[in-house]
C-alpha cells in the first residue's frame, strides 16, 4: 500500500491534469504570439477594449461618472513612450487645419477611446467641462500625414492605435453646449 488515501491520489491527478492543461495552453499562446503577433494583439485588444467599455458603462450607470482621460505634457515620442497613463500633446501633429492632438499608446490607457462613438460624453481630469465626441478619423499608422487630419472636428483630439492593425484612431472632442 502506498499510504496515500484515494482522495489524495485523486486530488494529485486533478492537479497534475490541471498543470498539464495550463502548460499546453501557455505553450500554444507562446507559439501563437511568435508566429502571428498581430493576430494575437488584435484579439487581445478586442477583449481588452470590450472589458474597458463594459466597466465604463457599469460605472456610468451606477455612479453617473463619465469616462475620464488625463492630459499630460507636450512633447514627442519620448514623452509618449513614458506610458504614464496620460495623453501627451503631440507637437509633431501641429497643423493649421488640425486641432491639438493628444496621444497615448493603446497599451498605456489610450485604448479607452477605441470604443467611443460620435455623441459619447467624456471628461478631462481636473476639468468640469463635459466634452462630446464630434468626429472620428482613422488613418494608417505608417505614411499618414497631418494633411490626412485636416478638417478634423473638435477643440482638441485624442489619438491611439488599434491593436494588431495598421490603423490609428483620432477622436475629436468639443464642449457640450450648455442649455441657456
In brief, what are we looking at here?
It is built from three helices and eight strands. With 180 residues, the protein is an alpha/beta fold.
Describe the structure.
- The mean pLDDT is 86.
- This protein has an 8-stranded mixed β-sheet.
- It has 180 residues and is α/β, with parallel strands linked by helices.
- Helix content is 34%, strand content 23%.
- The chain starts with 5 loop residues before the first helix and ends in a 5-residue tail after the last strand.
- The chain contains 3 helices and 8 strands, in the order ααββαββββββ.
Question: What is the gyration radius calculated from CA atoms?
Answer: 22 Å
User: How many H/I helices?
Assistant: 3
Q: If strands are numbered along the chain, what order do they take across the biggest sheet?
A: 1-5-6-8-7-4-3-2
End-to-end C-alpha gap: 87 Å
Proportion in helices: 25-40%
Task: Describe the protein's topology.
Layout (H helix, E strand, L loop, with lengths): L5 H30 L1 H27 L4 E2 L1 E5 L1 H4 L6 E4 L10 E3 L17 E4 L5 E10 L16 E6 L6 E8 L5
Parallel strand pairs: 1-5, 2-3, 4-7
Antiparallel strand pairs: 3-4, 5-6, 6-8, 7-8
Notable characteristics:
alpha/beta, eight-stranded mixed sheet, 180 residues, elongated
Amino acid at each position: 500500500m502506498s499510504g496515500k488515501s484515494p482522495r489524495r491520489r485523486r486530488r494529485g491527478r486533478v492537479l497534475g491534469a490541471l498543470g498539464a492543461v495550463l502548460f499546453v495552453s501557455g505553450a500554444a499562446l507562446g507559439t501563437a504570439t511568435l508566429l502571428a503577433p498581430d493576430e494575437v494583439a488584435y484579439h487581445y485588444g478586442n477583449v481588452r477594449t470590450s472589458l474597458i467599455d463594459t466597466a465604463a458603462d457599469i460605472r456610468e450607470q451606477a455612479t453617473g461618472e463619465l469616462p475620464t482621460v488625463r492630459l499630460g505634457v507636450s512633447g514627442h515620442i519620448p514623452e509618449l513612450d513614458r506610458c504614464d497613463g496620460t495623453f501627451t500633446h503631440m507637437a509633431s501633429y501641429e497643423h493649421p487645419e488640425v486641432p491639438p492632438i493628444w496621444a497615448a499608446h493603446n497599451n498605456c490607457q489610450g485604448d479607452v477611446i477605441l470604443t467611443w462613438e460620435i455623441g459619447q460624453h467624456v471628461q478631462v481630469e481636473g476639468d468640469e467641462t463635459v466634452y462630446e465626441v464630434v468626429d472620428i478619423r482613422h488613418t494608417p499608422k505608417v505614411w499618414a500625414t497631418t494633411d490626412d487630419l485636416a478638417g478634423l472636428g473638435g477643440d482638441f483630439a485624442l489619438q491611439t492605435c488599434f491593436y494588431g492593425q495598421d490603423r490609428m484612431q483620432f477622436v475629436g472632442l468639443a464642449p457640450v453646449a450648455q442649455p441657456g
